[in-house]
Amino acid sequence: MQRLMLLIVLVAAAAFAYLHWFAAPAPRYSLAAIERQPVPRAEFFALWREAAYDLCAPGRSGSERVGAAACRAHVERAHERCVARAGAGAPATIADQAESRRWARPYLDCVLPAPAACGGVPVRSDEDARRHCPP
Predict the structure, then answer these.
(1) For the segment 115-127, what is each residue's pLDDT rounded down to a tens digit?
(2) What is the structure's pLDDT at 120?
(3) Coil, helix or strand at residue 30
């Protein structure tokens, strides 16, 4: 019985050591390295959600009409809806920069609040933005 317990402890310690020090870490995806490491669809839109959060920073285009906190909240609320809409035909893996831009533009247009002005016309709502701003 003692040998069995010792064997279990040794196996558990070996498994912990292997997973902690020797196993390869989970891949960290990056939009900048998309050519070298293709990104799965779900992770791709999560990375673009982080980019949208960056666009919500004070002084950036996403926050000029509604403020940074409201912009981030808008991105959070709209993310799932916009992934479903913009990513409906997206491939399972996005593998190059051109393909990344192709799928990111409709997502960002959907997830970010409307700008304050488009072509010199003041924009007060998302409906105004769709009417006055080019796609």
Answers:
(1) 655 666 666 666 7
(2) 62
(3) coil
The model carries a pTM of 0.66
Three-state DSSP at 58 gives: coil
Instruction: Work out the average pLDDT over 66-88.
Output: 88
CA distance linking residue 135 with residue 129, whole number of Å:
10
Residue 95 clears pLDDT 60, i.e. is over it: yes
| H or E, element range at 75 | helix 68-86
Could you tell me the two tokens for 103? Answer: 């799928």
User: What would you report as the CA-atom Rg of the chain, rounded to the nearest whole angstrom?
Assistant: 22
Q: Which residue in the block uniquely carries the two structure tokens 């959070």?
A: 76
Other Cβ atoms less than 10 A from the Cβ of 63: the count is: 21
Which residue bears the tokens 């996005």? 94
Distance CA 36, CA 100 (A): 13
Least Cα distance to 86 among 49, 123, 125 occurs for 49
Tabulate helix, strand, coil % of the chain (nearest 5).
60, 5, 35
Q: Is 41 helix (H, G, I), strand (E, B) or coil?
A: helix
